[in-house]
C-alpha cells in the first residue's frame, strides 16, 4: 500500500470517530448513558472477534495470566474513559467533547513523566500550557462557565491516556492488539451493563430507537475504524499518522455544526484551535527533533 492510500485510510478512521461523537450525543435522547456504553461495546466485542481469531492463528506467543490481568486493567481504564465521556455529553456540546477528549495526546507523556519516571521531551510543558489555555478560552475566559460535562471530559482524557499508556506497553509484550481490543471491549461492556441495570431504566423500544447510533459506534467507530488505523499505520510515518488521526476533533466539531447546529463564540474556536495545535506539537516535535540529531 502506498503512503497516500495509508494516510487516506487514517483520515477515514478519524472521520468515523468524529461521527461517533454525534452518534453518542443523539443516542441519549432515547437511552441512558450506561446502557448505551454497554450495548455499544458489546457490539464492538462481536465486531472485532473475527479479527481476533485470525490474529490467534498467527500468534507467536500465548496469552499468559499476567497478560490477561493487564487486559482487564486496561478494560477498566477504557470503561472509566467511556463513562465520563458519555455522561459528560449530557451537559456539554459535541464540539467541546471532541476537542477536550483529544487532550489525551498531552496527558500520555505527562503520565510517563510522573508515573513511569521517564524524562519528558521539552515540548511537553509548552504543549500542556497551550492545552490548559485552550480550555480557558473554550470557557469564554470564565472558568465558572465550564460545564460539569466539560470537566468530566477532562477526566475522560486522563482515563484515555492511562488506557493508551497501559495498552502500548502490553501490546509490545504480547504482539496481540486485537486480542487486547476484544477483552477491553468486553470488560467495558460488562461494567457498563452492570451499572445500567442498577441505576437506569430501559425498554426494548428505547434500545430500538437508539439502535442506529449503537450499531454505528459499535461496528464502525470501534470495529472498522480500529482496523483501518492498524492497517494505515503500517504504511506511513508516526508523524503523518498523528496529523491524520488527530483530525478526529475537527470532524467531530464540523459534523456537530452541520448535523446538530452547534455554534460557539470566537474565543471558543480560538480555544479549540489552541488545543488542536497543542496535540500536533506534542505528537510531531519529538519525532522531528530526533531526525535532526546527528548519527552517533
From TrEMBL:
Annotated Pfam families: EamA
Name of this protein: DMT family transporter
InterPro entries documented for this protein: Diverse_Substrate_Transporter, EamA_dom, EmrE-like
Organism encoding this protein: Rhizobium indigoferae
Cellular localization per UniProt: Cell membrane
Domain EamA: 6-139, 148-282
Keyword Mitochondrion: no
Main location: membrane
Keywords: Cell membrane, Membrane, Transmembrane, Transmembrane helix
Membrane-crossing segments per the record: 33-56, 68-87, 99-116, 123-145, 151-171, 178-199, 205-228, 240-260, 266-285
SUPFAM superfamilies: Multidrug resistance efflux transporter EmrE
Membrane topology classification: Multi-pass membrane protein
Amino acid at each position: 500500500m502506498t503512503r497516500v492510500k495509508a494516510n487516506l485510510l487514517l483520515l477515514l478512521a478519524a472521520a468515523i470517530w468524529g461521527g461517533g461523537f454525534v452518534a453518542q450525543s443523539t443516542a441519549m435522547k432515547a437511552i441512558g448513558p450506561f446502557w448505551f456504553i454497554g450495548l455499544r461495546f458489546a457490539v464492538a466485542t462481536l465486531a472485532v472477534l473475527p479479527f481476533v481469531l485470525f490474529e490467534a492463528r498467527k500468534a507467536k506467543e500465548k496469552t499468559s495470566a499476567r497478560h490477561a490481568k493487564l487486559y482487564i486493567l486496561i478494560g477498566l481504564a477504557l470503561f472509566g474513559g467511556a463513562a465520563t465521556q458519555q455522561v459528560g455529553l449530557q451537559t456539554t456540546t459535541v464540539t467541546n467533547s471532541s476537542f477536550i477528549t483529544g487532550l489525551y495526546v498531552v496527558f500520555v507523556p505527562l503520565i510517563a513523566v510522573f508515573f513511569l519516571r521517564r524524562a519528558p521531551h521539552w515540548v511537553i510543558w509548552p504543549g500542556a500550557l497551550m492545552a490548559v489555555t485552550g480550555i480557558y478560552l473554550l470557557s469564554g475566559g470564565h472558568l465558572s462557565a465550564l460545564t460539569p460535562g466539560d470537566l468530566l471530559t477532562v477526566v475522560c482524557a486522563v482515563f484515555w491516556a492511562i488506557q493508551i499508556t497501559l495498552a502500548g506497553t502490553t501490546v509490545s509484550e504480547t504482539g496481540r492488539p486485537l486480542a487486547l481490543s476484544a477483552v477491553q471491549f468486553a470488560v467495558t461492556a460488562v461494567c457498563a451493563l452492570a451499572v445500567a441495570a442498577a441505576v437506569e431504566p430501559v425498554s426494548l423500544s428505547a434500545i430500538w430507537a437508539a439502535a442506529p447510533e449503537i450499531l454505528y459506534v459499535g461496528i464502525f467507530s470501534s470495529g472498522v475504524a480500529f482496523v483501518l488505523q492498524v492497517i494505515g499505520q503500517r504504511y506511513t510515518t508516526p508523524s503523518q499518522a498523528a496529523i491524520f488521526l488527530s483530525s478526529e476533533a475537527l470532524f467531530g466539531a464540523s459534523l456537530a455544526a452541520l448535523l446538530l447546529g452547534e455554534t460557539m463564540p470566537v474565543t471558543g474556536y480560538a480555544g479549540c484551535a489552541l488545543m488542536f495545535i497543542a496535540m500536533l506539537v506534542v505528537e510531531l516535535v519529538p519525532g522531528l527533533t530526533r531526525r535532526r540529531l546527528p548519527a552517533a
